[in-house]
Design brief:
385 residues, alpha/beta, Rossmann fold, 2 domains, 7-stranded parallel sheet, 6-stranded parallel sheet, 35% helix
């Protein structure tokens, strides 16, 4: 029986020995020639329509910082790996709105229609999502190549053909800049050329309420995205049990993706607010919430726990060795990945005001040292070392 080629993704790995050799030569020679500063950069990105969505927000933060410091022009190559055309204008509008100091050029790259030789020469180039690593392998019009690694992406899929193909991208010889210690530890299985940064929190946006009154009705905010990495089904099951236990004493809202509670049997349990328009709106919601539930099956904690912590919202998340550098029993509610026990931990914590206050205080201390300037300095030192 022929294996199903998942939307053409297996074809992305159709590279030649000549491609591998040209990539090795580019990396070896480029290291000798370039020492900074960075005035031109190219980023390979998957199709994205909103500049504040997920890990691409980090990409745009770092690239805007380069523009502010060095006047860097950032070329964003938006890659359609399945060959379908797409509208680039929503992303352009979102970038202008949310990153006003970013100097950028947007280019479509549609598989089967565009060729790597059409792309301009730059000093440094980055791949982001694993699908873009195969483009960076073939792109040799630069001095330095970097893997901007924001999660361990083989775990996005079941063990199998795609899993091992994604693993191989970490052996392409790119310098790895990893988002968090847990992700870096995974990358070090494949290469020693790894540095990592800890993400920051914008304290001008995310901050706690000056006064916090004990309300009879508690509010839980759920980072609800219907995908396996965020353990969406497990989260729904836990929240179902919490609502069944607390009834009108708890309001549960979800943010992060557009989905209909009716489709998931969650009507009357969860109100889905979808994608909020601004980070300020997100921060306001977190400030008004008592507890934030977020699950991650991969080594990156996501930004929600940091933003919850900065906003005075108690974090509830799954036990995960990859995120233990930040999330502990002292500053979070660590949950067993089982609906019954996890729901009990949440309801017990919500009912214990002293415990909630201790967790909020410890959480705020845990993120006190995290800031974007430190992350940017790590990033810059790797670009020019």
């Amino acid at each position: 029986m022929a294996l199903k080629n998942v939307d053409g993704m297996l074809e992305l790995g159709r590279i030649s020995l000549e491609d591998l050799k040209a990539n090795e030569d580019c990396i070896r020679l480029g290291r000798r020639k370039f020492s900074g500063p960075v005035t031109s950069a190219l980023w390979f990105l998957p199709i994205v329509t909103h500049a504040l969505k997920g890990g691409v927000r980090t990409v745009f933060q770092f690239s805007e910082w380069l523009s502010e410091k060095y006047g860097t022009t950032n070329v964003f190559v938006i890659y359609s790996f399945n060959g379908r055309d797409f509208d680039i204008s929503p992303l352009a509008n979102s970038l202008r709105l949310n990153f006003p100091n970013l100097r950028f050029v947007l280019k479509k790259f549609i598989r089967g229609k565009n060729h790597i030789s059409e792309l301009p020469y730059v000093q440094v180039a980055f791949c982001t999502l694993w699908t873009t690593a195969f483009l960076l392998l073939r792109y040799n019009s630069c001095y330095r190549k970097f893997y901007f690694m924001q999660d361990y992406e083989p775990m996005f899929y079941e063990g199998g053909d795609l899993y091992v193909m994604i693993e191989q991208t970490y052996r392409f010889g790119f310098s790895v800049i990893a988002n968090t210690e847990g992700v870096a530890n995974r990358a070090k299985r494949y290469t020693d050329d790894v540095v990592h940064f800890a993400p920051g929190v914008d304290r001008k946006i995310f901050f706690p309420r000056k006064e916090r009154k004990a309300n009879k009705t508690k509010q839980i905010v759920f980072y609800g995205r219907p995908n396996p990495r965020n353990c969406f089904g497990l989260g729904l099951s836990i929240l179902h049990d919490v609502k069944q236990k607390l009834g009108a004493e708890v309001r549960i809202v979800s943010v992060g993706a557009d989905w209909d509670p009716v489709d998931y049997g969650a009507q009357g349990i969860i109100e889905n607010l979808g994608l909020l328009p601004t980070m300020s709106a997100v921060a306001n919601l977190y400030r008004e919430s008592d507890l934030g539930l977020v699950f991650m099956a991969t080594p990156h904690p996501s930004y929600q726990p940091l933003e919850y912590m900065a906003s005075g919202c108690v974090v509830a998340t799954n036990i995960n060795e990859g995120t233990s550098w930040l999330l502990t029993n002292e500053n979070s509610v660590l949950l067993e990945p089982t609906p019954g026990a996890a729901a009990q931990r949440i309801t017990n914590t919500l009912g214990d005001e002293a415990r909630m206050a201790t967790l909020r205080g410890n959480a705020y201390e845990a993120i006190r040292g995290l800031n974007w300037l430190r992350a940017f300095m790590t990033f810059e030192s790797r670009l020019c070392d």
